[in-house]
């Protein structure tokens, strides 16, 4: 199988006042990989996600997705370019049904404007039916089709996380960026999440994963980068990173 680079990011710096939150961070993620980003609290992982998804502007850095430069200047532009993300703190539309949440995600890829939808043009109606169908398929794919019509805030925590992933997948992303998807999950939910991520990978998607659960990261990721105080201190295969002295010192040897 010929390996292709999907995401290449080089030389990212980001400063908040006196704090250098990211120092010369670079990653190269190959198509179809699950790539992990780990590090102790405050290491800069979420800041890096926010930079690559357009929520924060980097001070420096170059960004390439599938061989094309992209400019992470605004979240909707990033979604159009083919990156979808979830958040550390779940951000669903709580009063909307599970199905509606996924349909909203799908709208990034649709053609009829808001006006078409409002006026219920024939083409808009047809597109809406297609969106609904695809959204149902995605709910089924993540394993919560039976809750399609349930108001999303009444879903269990694990199912809300699955719903967030379904909504992100609805944009047909080339890269799915997950910010601590296992946070707050019990062991059974984590196991199910792991299976879901393996299934998403099997569909040919590329995943960038921030995760605190080291066992999950080590078992799932093809490669990973470790950040500490905003600096990359190791990069490579999980088995090698696990043995790296700087990593053990900074992270694995501590709370884990
Ligand atoms: N908007 C901001 N303004 C000022 N400082 C910020 C901002 N966002 C993040 N920081 C700081 O940047 C550093 C990196 O934070 P970040 O949230 O990226 O770390 P993290 O690795 O994701 O941590 P955690 O594992 O706890 O989520 C921290 O010191 C944090 O306080």
TrEMBL record:
SUPFAM superfamilies, sorted: P-loop containing nucleoside triphosphate hydrolases (SSF52540)
A single cellular component GO annotation: plasma membrane
Any GO MF annotation of the entry: ATP binding
Pfam families xref list: ABC_tran, BCA_ABC_TP_C
Annotated keywords: ATP-binding, Cell membrane, Membrane, Nucleotide-binding, Transport
Residue ranges of domain ABC transporter in the record: 7-254
GO biological process: D-alanine transmembrane transport; L-alanine transport; L-isoleucine import across plasma membrane; L-valine import across plasma membrane
Classification via PANTHER family: AMINO ACID ABC TRANSPORTER ATP-BINDING PROTEIN, CONSERVED COMPONENT OF ABC TRANSPORTER FOR NATURAL AMINO ACIDS-RELATED
Protein name: ABC transporter ATP-binding protein
Species this protein is from: Noviherbaspirillum cavernae
